[in-house]
Amino acid sequence: MEYGISSYVWVSPFRNSDEAILQKAKDFGFDMFEAAVETVGSFDPHVVKDIADKIGIKVYICGCFGATRDPGSENPEIRKEAIAYLKTCIDYAVVTGSPYVSGPMYATSGVAMLRTPDEKEAMMKRIVESLKDVGEYAEKRGVKLAIEPLNRYETDVVNTVDDGLALIERIGGGPFGFLLDMFHMSIEEKSFVKAIEKAGDRLYDFHACANDRGTPGEDHFDWVSVAGALKKIGYKGPVVIESFTSGIKEIAKSASLWHPVAPSMDYLASNGLKFLKGILEK
């Protein structure tokens, strides 16, 4: 099992100049760094790969899905842009050696609507068509695509593993699997264990955080059961600490961080990693 940390913990957006952040992650003991591609061109994957190799840390790729990156949009130009963006993320993954691109790639994050059944079906058809195109591109390049279910306040498209499995089936499987995030699961899934077991060998990425998106272990989660479920499915992929620095107003607003979730982000990283290793390696 690999232990990772998201770029969002310390910086937004991640840039070529953030070498010190990669070094910090390595010094804390993380095996990999999950870089969010917030703005195409904010970092050069070749440059970051070279820096990471010198430091001795892996770089994996996570996507970010704003209003112009909606593969289910009624606007064909927005769908086209969403597909192009995802293909760029896949290209980044090839360069850095990331086994996947992860994130809620099926819709714009932060948008939840009450749609009629006909409206939702029309949207789902557009999503499936777009993601089939992206899936073929990814499969040819040996990159997996990890769909992240989000909670009901952030999307009305994929909230649970069951929703994700239904979407993956409509796409036709291929390279698609899951990024499961403890924060979203705590709101939407009736059981962490059952959700993890349903994902099974399609679980490619796992985000760990407390129920308030703070330090893993400083929460009311049953981590022993979570650890048992990951072991039962034979999960060997990354366990990534994801939280968001409240020091950046745009991130704080989008993630609804109205107060600090830890004494410091360094505290969250170091104490969270210590906890995860203790519970997952028993």
Structure in words:
With 282 residues, the chain is of the alpha/beta class. It is built from 10 helices and 8 strands. It has a single domain, classed as Divalent-metal-dependent TIM barrel enzymes (TIM Barrel), CATH 3.20.20.150. Helix content is 44%, strand content 15%. α3 links the parallel β3 (58-63) and β4 (100-103). It is globular, with a radius of gyration of 18 Å. It starts with a strand and ends with a helix.
Which fold does the CATH topology refer to? TIM Barrel
Radius of gyration: 18 Å
Average residue pLDDT? 95
Cα-to-Cα separation, first versus last residue: 12 Å
Instruction: Label the overall shape.
Output: globular
The fraction of residues in strands falls at 5-15%
State the order of secondary-structure elements, H for helix, E for strand.
EHEHEHEHEHEHHEHEHH
The fourth-level CATH homologous superfamily is Divalent-metal-dependent TIM barrel enzymes
Largest sheet: 8 strands, parallel, barrel
Q: Strand order across the biggest sheet? A: 1-2-3-4-5-6-7-8
- Helical percentage: 40-55%
CATH top level assignment: Alpha Beta
Q: With helices defined by DSSP (H or I, 4 residues minimum), what is the helix count? A: 10
**Tally of separate domains:** 1
Secondary structure: number of strands: 8
Q: Which stretches of 5+ consecutive residues score pLDDT under 50?
A: none
Query: What structural class results from the helix and strand content?
Result: alpha/beta
What is the CATH architecture annotation?
Alpha-Beta Barrel
